[in-house]
Fold:
Amino acid sequence: MRLGPSCLAMTMLGLLGCASGSTDVGGTDAASIRNAPAGVATLQFMDLEAIRPDMLASASSLPAGVTSASLGGGVTRYSCDSTVVKAANAGSLGGYVDITAAPVTGGTAYTEDFHLSVVASDAPAQTWSYTGQQLVTVTGALAGFALATTGQPLTLTLVDTAVPANNKTYTFTPSLTESWVGANPPTSVTLNGTYLFAQTLPVADAKLISCDLTQQPLVWTPAECPSYPNAGTLVLSLNTTPVVTATVKFGPTCGQATLNGARLGLGGN
Amino acid sequence: MRPMLAPLVLAAALPALCQGPERHWYVDIHRFTPTFEGHLQDFRTDNPVDVDLVKDLALGKDKTKLGFSLEYQGPRFGLELSRDEEDYAGANVVNRQITVNDQTFSAGALVHSSLKATNNTLNWTIRCLARPQFWLGLDLGIRATQLELTASGLEPFSGVTAQSHYKATLPVPQLGPALGFTAFDDRLAGRAYYHFLSYKGATYRHPGADLRFFPISWLGVRVFTDGEHFKVPRNSVNKDVDIALDRTGTGVGLVARF
Structure:
């Protein structure tokens, strides 16, 4: 039994012509995003990579709230005043980083020894601690040189004295390269490569997040935006089955970023 | 439409020659609990949808409200007006990206969903060949199925939650052969039908059967089965549409006859 084309087309497409609906999106507030795994893997990465030994060493003046002191033996301590310096999650960043510079063939090897802490701005009971070492090797000339970041995983610990169930431990393992444009100080810095962000504790909630900067490397322009990239994309992948991904896009202006389209506010420093 | 009208007019005229069963009015309440499976893909409108009811949402039977019908069955024609409504619910971690009313839920999102399916049927049966205990006819009618799908999802990775509501109405003409019988002095009555449409590879099939037993002349019980199979393969009527829905089940009811 066959009907005419127009009649049947209307029949078969009746569903389409009569569709309607509505949508509500939530959890896009800054607190929700900051505490989600993708937010943590982004913001804590920003804290660790914003403190570049090469940039500190080459800076004509240090950022506000950061002081330096020579400890001897080629070690320089950069201390952060937590009342001034802001973390990427808008918390207060305090503590220090000891940077040891040692000459290597064709450049300099820096060892960064982190002793930093971040108190969340909207949850004072939550404190992040960044400990461990990161190795940074600078090769080539200062202008246009390449930098390779490798080394032991850094340990990131979140302690929540109000809700201990929130306590978590992560490791951060970078495999990044950096290139400068312009003389000291650089007019722009491009960060490329990958890094791993692993939640190791609690064991029952362990997860591994792979972060890929290669699709659109992160670009800093220190004169305009010293602390955060103002362009670039992070593609975050969670090692679940199926693999879950999230995309962080920086820009278009300093301190702005989106996570899967939702605004990811960055604290200024 | 002229070639279509001629046989329909002829079919409508045939009952005048028939000696069919007696005239009856039926009022019934029933409970119908069909399964509902399949997928919806439609990217043509401002309300795009791409979801599989079972594989993505794990929708299963939740609640069934009492349905009702009002019928006139006479020697020359029958007229049926009926309504039933079923609720389905599910919760699932989706393993692919799905879309409900332009809201995307990424793989890994925990999605809670509910679906309300409401069916309204108006059917006219022309009894082309009618005898006191048997008849053969043609069903002409329309059946409107309204779907209301609500999906609430949490993406643990990004912390984003979303709730999306999708509503669609599917009006489908009912056209196909029907037959029926009565037995045991009209204490047992049965009816079966098969409605079918086809166009460019897209098909709609709607088979069903209904059996009624009246231990009391004016009050009886009803057992019936009904299935709807709606298939619109991609590139059949449109390249952006791919729909396959199957709704099949059985029902029971209480029938009053006047």
